[in-house]
Amino acid sequence: MPLILASASLIRRAMLDAAGVRFRAITPSVDEAAVKRQLSDPRHIAIELAKAKAIDVSARESGDWVIGSDSVVSVAGRLFDKPSSRDEAAEHLRFFSGKSMELTSAAALAMGQVVDWTHSEMATLEVRSLSEDFISSYLDQEWPAVGNCVGVFRMEGYGVHLFDRVVGDHFTILGMPLIPLLGALRDRGAIAG
Q1: Residue 7: pLDDT above 90?
Q2: Among candidates 144, 45, 96, 16, which has minimal Cα distance to 5?
Q3: How far is residue 14 from each of residues 8, 51, 100, 154, 159, measured CA to CA in Å?
Q4: Do 80 and 151 touch, CB atoms closer than 8 A?
């Protein structure tokens, strides 16, 4: 059965590829800021963004299952977006230093603009105390790649050095609750069971 990932995220594509899932990727056209303005709870924001992306692409590809996914980062009650510049990335890292980061990832499945399934999971990442020298060195290595990452890190790369402790599912931290998603796809006959 045709399957589409409504995302431009390279890591989400890589997760599905590694799991042997055949799919096409289409970048959705969703006003994420408008969705975020309407909600304050990170879990609800992640789910609504995942749904909006799945609905948007399924409007164009009505006969296919569409996966929408999104991640939201909050630290000390403050929501963070992807940094727009290296300076903003450094500001985010300074704010994260020594604090607990909550990362919520959600996925949604839609067909014909109807959402059939949603799921979200949260992980907690304890950010170690980050020196100015480390932040500068880190961004020398990781910028601009982490400009596409809401938490200014790639766990599959050098970003692992930001943390003292991580509690939560690895795939959730990468940006998509993959294991529940695979189960939902099998239940719907979208992948082999």
Answers
A1: yes
A2: 16
A3: 11, 21, 27, 13, 17
A4: yes
Residues 190, 187: Cα–Cα separation, whole Å: 8
SS3 for 122-151, per residue? EEEEEECCCCHHHHHHHHHHHCCHHHHCCC
Q: Enter the tokens of residue 86.
A: 């290296």
pLDDT (tens digit per residue) in 97-142: 999 999 999 999 999 999 999 999 999 999 999 999 999 999 999 9
3-state secondary structure of 6: strand
pLDDT value at residue 116: 97
pLDDT at 59 over 70: yes
pLDDT at 1: 66
- Cis peptide leading into residue 144 (ω within 30°): yes
Query: Cβ(25)–Cβ(10) under 8 Å?
Result: no
Containing 93, the helix (H) or strand (E) segment is helix 86-96
Catalytic site residues?
70
Strands 65-75 and 24-25: unpaired
